[in-house]
Amino acid sequence: MKEATKRNILKRYSAIVTAFILSVVVIPPSAFATHPSIEGETIWINEIMFNPDGSDSGREWIEIYNYGTSDINISGWKLWEGGSNHTIRLINGSWVIRGFSYAIIANNATKFLQDHPDYKGTLFESKFSLSNNKNETIILKNSSLGEVDSATYDHSILEGYSYEKYPDNPWMQSKEEGGTPGEVNSYFLEWIDVSKEVWNGETWSDNVQVDNGSTVTFRITVYNKCPCYLETKYLLWFSGKIVDYLPCNLNYIEGSVHDIILNGSPVNESLKQEMINGEVYNDTAKVIEWNRIPEPINYLRSLSFKFNAIANCTLCEEGVNKAVAIAFFAPQDLSWRIYVSDNDTAFVACKPTIKVKKLVKNETGGFAKETIAKIGEKVTFLIKVKNEINASLNITVRDTLPEGLIFVNASPSPSDVSGNVIYWNLSGVDHNEERFILLNVTVNKTGIFRNEVEVWNESLNVSDRDHAYVIAGLIIEVKKEVWNESEEAWSYMVRAKVGSDVMFRIIVRNKGTALPHVVVRDLLPPFMSFSSACPEPDFINGREIMWHIKDFDANETRTFLLCARVEQVGEGSNVAEALAFERLVGRDKAIVKAVPRPALDIEKEVSIDNVTWSKFAWIDVGDIVYFRINVSNNLPANISNVKVIDKLPSFLKYNYDANIEPTGANDTYIEWWFNKLEAGEYKIITFSATAIGKGYGENIVHASACGRFFGKDRAYVLVQHRPEIMVDKKAWNGTAWVDELYVKEYALNGTAVKFRITVENTGGVTLKNIEVQDIMSCGLEWTPGTFSPQPDELTMYSITWRIDSLKPGETIHIYFDGRVHCDSLNKVYAYAESDIGSANDVDHLYISKYPIVLAYEPKSHDFGKVEQNKVVKTTFQIWNNGTGLLVYNLTENCTWLSVYPTEGNSTGEKDNITITVDTHGLAEGNYTCNIFINSNGGKGVFTVRLRVIGIPELSISPLSQDFGYVPKGESVSTTFKVWNSRTGTLEYTISPECDWVTVSPASGESTGEKDTIHVTVYTSGLSPGIHSCDIRIQSNGGNKTFTISLNVFEPQPPIIELIKPVKGRIYVRNKPLLIPIFFTTIIKGPITVHAVVSDPNPGGKIERVEFYVDDELKEEDIAPPYAWVWSGWVFGSHTLKVKAIDNYGIENETELKVLIFSFGFGAPTTGTVYGKVTEAGHLFKKPIAGVTVTAEPKYGEGKRETTTTGSIPLINKGKYKLHLEEGTYEISFEHPDYKTYTEEIEIIPGEEIKLNVSLEPK
């Protein structure tokens, strides 16, 4: 790989890594292997950080790894260290360790997360303390205290590094400072390497330039770089997959995989076809997945294959093609697995040519790739032609209109129009010059019309084409339902309990024309989470689920099933939508009401240490066991008379120590009564019991309340002695028996060594059939005739003793002599049986010379961002931190870095090493290089990281703004964002193409942050009508256009007609007299001032109407009818003014001088509507009795009133009257024998409206 660190790749694809586990045993060579499941307690200790950099306090941790296929629940497990079994507590995640997953046991979880803030995995805490001054053994024990795995670390490794496990091989110091918590161990990352290459016509390369429409061939190679110095050569398997991410300018040729080479030999045709059959290609995302890959890859061998793609330069001009391989290392028998991943990239760019871009004006006034139009509507296309070739060219343009579009005109005028084909001859188009053509057409039928344009130059044989869509008649129907289990039917609503699953059905029907692509999107309510779906979704992001429908035919129907989990109480809608051409074209919803768990909830747990709680405990006779009961009220109301009863099994005796005093108790029965539990309240009861005998049983707790709420739970206890065994291997150093033996020199025929093995029964039951086996590693041999006692089996590499039995506490010692020829790791195993189970243990003995110790600082350097074509340097130091002479050499795994010097030696002095990085020829992206330090004092790695900054890319949002109607003389403003969506520094300038628009700022820089650009439009110099302006954004990362549009109009003031009072009339108690006068208006008593107001401006509406008396504001009305009751104690001459303001802020007013005499009483508060209801179709009106007349407020102002027409002939038959508050009403007339009639009226206080109605018989 060339671009990203393998650790980041593995973290990124960790979800994929754990998802592909197969289950068949046969593994023929050079085939598609199926992999057997690995079951049992497949947990090993994988990494130990006993000496972190700086203070150790609370910062030590141990990593465990599940190397099997089955999930393992480690609840109740213990960590043995320093002679004690330490409790393990869950902090984050789950007690269940998934197959091939990691977890951390920290001695202080808070400090661990402070040191590793990005860690998101399972985290446990256990109060252990690891020594920095001596080797120490750590044992992981299950809930039965049986040993699962053990490890003894070498305390002499460098501070700040972890101790990493490598299967079937001694542990090693980590390559990376700080270790790799929650991730694959550091050396494994070098064992896989992916190479991605592209054929450039002459050789395989990491970049190529292509012609549009040409075939591009790629080669992917995956190497197994398992080190050859390992005794076991691990194979590389593909239980994962290989994924290729194509750039936007390539389309994959499906089934084009060829030339598959595995371990140096071509695979047969059937294996090739299986790989092709297993591929999945997502054309929308441009992602290829190969799920059936020939395997395994032998060590130091490889798998390679080729595939083809078609260059599509119309979508984009360049891009990076990435290949990712996800696999695992394992031995031939697949007894364990370590997952790894790597990636590599190739760069594909299109050759310079002539370019054409076809856009169409959409509903917002901007130009885009498609628009929705009506029959008969005019549509405008924009054709952009650009010459990228370094020469002046004559370019021919041909636009072919589809059926359904009719040519109207164009600018510039075409050179020829032949039916639906239009030609332009553009002469003298200079290098990088861009020409524009506007083409107007009309739509004359329903459908989706693709309008294509072509450009070419015959002399150079270069061409390009593009298209845009006009959509007419888009009809998608969406129906969303939810399964109602109680009714066994699909419904629009369901009630579901928290924790249950709900199934939805989405039916999508195309009732319009055939569509090339439709997106179905489902959004779950906040209290639900996605579980599964059929068919599988193409995209899942939290609560959002998407499917892509390709080629959706007319009248076709698709059905989708979706399951979701109810996580908490709530009520909401699950919305399903259909989108075509990024437009919402259909929508429906179903409603879920999530109800809580049972009203009275009870939980019972057990613990052996009063710290870690579970459902099961294994104790010995005489031990104390602890219980915890949690009883809670989940109702929103109180529950009274709550009774809790706990019954212990017969082999347990209550210790009379409950934290809440029982109302009754004996040795096996405990009872509590609570007067009430308030809403949401819970009680936690704790107590203990002593094991008075052996047995296994359940401890049941019951809860009840009010005779109608019930709950029950249980915990399990096993009382039995546990089998345990301890084995210890030591060597004599002349003064003492030690776990580590150092020798000055190895004698020619080996250095003599004395050994002692101690075996002890540390459990409470008699052990039998004990077997002790000593594995003599390479460099060790035993001396004949020195054994005491004599072994039962003896081979060159192992010694076995068998012991009939050991009583609790009994110990035996085994002595023998041997010779050591080189540094060695000696292991001894002990296994025993008993009547109630087995026990085992393991120990290690290390033998080596007095140490020469490699030391170097720092361990890595990150250059950060480095521009292309730059040279940067750094240094680090190497020295001998032990005795003697350190001899070292350095090698690197990349071509863009050099090291000086590459070798040296040290007796303690520090040597300076210079690293030089040259970014010439490097593509943008992240780079990592490891410098390997090999010496006679150990190995090390110095890591160099940098990010090469490439060409920035301009992005803006939104692309346009339509202000709609704007009064002339007014200014309007908006904003848009400009930012760099790639790397480096984006430098840009902004300039509007019209003088009535200003922008601020007009230039800027961005390294990723989004800059806000303010746009102001001044309309003073614009004529009425539609105007648009392009704002050009030019940058070193491309150019873009922000388009604004608006419709300018000459503003007109609101029209005000004062209905009451009017000039020259006399009003008495709100009613006009028929006697007119001409000199003034006279008012006696209160009066309702009523004005009719309208707005003549396009898009205008009245915001409010204000009523003034002598320029003092008296009332403000925001909805018709615009009226105000003028009352109170008022006398004399006054000026009445009515002012109207519309949504553009335009005002108008009218005034009237009046002479008023009001004594402050009798002001009207209601208006009256009255009339008669008769039967239609009669010459003489026939009144109808019993008609229900209802007045319903339309805008929320007023009060609903109802009455019934009278029934007394000649008196009130058919007549009605309603007194209504001010407002707009819908008056409805209803009778079972007649058609209902509705009419809208405005009620003004003090006024009467006569409304006679004739109803038609049904």
How would you explain this protein's 3D organization?
With 1258 residues, the chain is mainly β. The protein has nine domains: 43-177, Sandwich (Immunoglobulin-like); 192-346, Immunoglobulin-like (Sandwich); 357-470; 477-595, Immunoglobulin-like, CATH 2.60.40; 600-720, Immunoglobulin-like, CATH 2.60.40; 725-848, Immunoglobulin-like; 854-949, Immunoglobulins (Immunoglobulin-like), CATH 2.60.40; 954-1042, Immunoglobulin-like (Sandwich), CATH 2.60.40.10; and more. 2% of the residues lie in helices and 59% in strands. Strand 65 (793-794) and strand 66 form a beta hairpin. The relative contact order is 0.05.
What's the topology here?
Blueprint: H1 6-12, H2 14-17, E1 43-49, E2 61-66, E3 72-73, E4 78-81, E5 84-87, E6 89-92, E7 96-97, E8 102-106, H3 109-115, E9 122-125, E10 136-141, E11 147-153, E12 163-166, E13 169-173, E14 192-199, E15 204-205, E16 207-210, E17 215-224, E18 235-245, E19 250-252, E20 258-262, E21 265-266, H4 269-277, E22 279-282, E23 287-290, E24 302-311, E25 318-330, E26 338-350, E27 354-361, E28 367-368, E29 370-372, E30 378-387, E31 393-400, E32 405-411, E33 416-418, E34 421-429, E35 434-443, E36 447-457, E37 462-472, E38 476-484, E39 489-491, E40 493-497, E41 501-510, E42 515-523, E43 528-534, E44 539-541, E45 544-552, E46 557-566, E47 570-580, E48 583-595, E49 600-607, E50 616-619, E51 624-633, E52 639-647, E53 652-654, E54 664-665, E55 669-677, E56 682-691, E57 695-705, E58 709-719, E59 725-732, E60 737-738, E61 740-743, E62 751-761, E63 767-775, E64 780-782, E65 793-794, E66 798-806, E67 811-820, E68 824-834, E69 837-849, E70 854-857, E71 860-867, E72 871-880, E73 886-892, E74 897-900, E75 903-906, E76 911-918, ...
Parallel strand pairs: 8-9, 16-26, 29-37, 40-48, 50-58, 61-69, 71-78, 80-87, 89-91, 91-97, 98-105, 98-106
Antiparallel strand pairs: 1-2, 1-12, 2-8, 3-7, 4-5, 4-10, 6-9, 10-11, 12-13, 14-15, 14-17, 17-24, 18-23, 18-25, 19-24, 20-21, 20-24, 22-23, 25-26, 27-28, 27-30, 30-35, 31-34, 31-36, 32-35, 33-34, 36-37, 38-39, 38-41, 41-46, 42-45, 42-47, 43-46, 44-45, 47-48, 49-51, 51-56, 52-55, 52-57, 53-56, ...
